[in-house]
Model the fold of this input.
Amino acid sequence: MTSMTRRRFLGQVGRASGCLACAGVLPVGLGGCASVPWASYERTGSRITLPLSAFDDTDGVLLDLPDRPAPLYVHRAAGIDGEERFTAVLTLCMHQGCTAAPQGSRIVCPCHGSEYAQDGTLLRGPSERDLIRFPATVTDERVWIHLNGVEDG
Ligand code: FES
Done:
């Protein structure tokens, strides 16, 4: 599978949901569908960093990685100890490789309906595997994602 551009991804999500805003026909926010913002990032080799401020108005952002087959979804959640935790998952569905999209509290594949939690844990098939997850840490007001360190699902 080749890398997917942001426009193609938005179009796929929009077609799957029937949402013109998600399809890029209307400005996002006017169509009434959930939208996840795209964030800018810096990359050095397999390390990606983005500022914590990217999460000022959202708990999840998408990153367009040209060398990956689907966008990366980075999500912030509160742990049971109250500390913020970040997860980074590739939105490549583990069933047959469609691009899944964050929708509410889940990541949903438009092709055959597999659903994943925001940390990539499989919730509903036909997929039989979690999404690919990368380690994410926070240091110096930045989120660090390590693309060469795939975590077990
Ligand atoms: Fe995602 Fe089939 S490719 S459910």
Remarks:
- The longest helix spans residues 6-17.
- The chain has a mean pLDDT of 82.
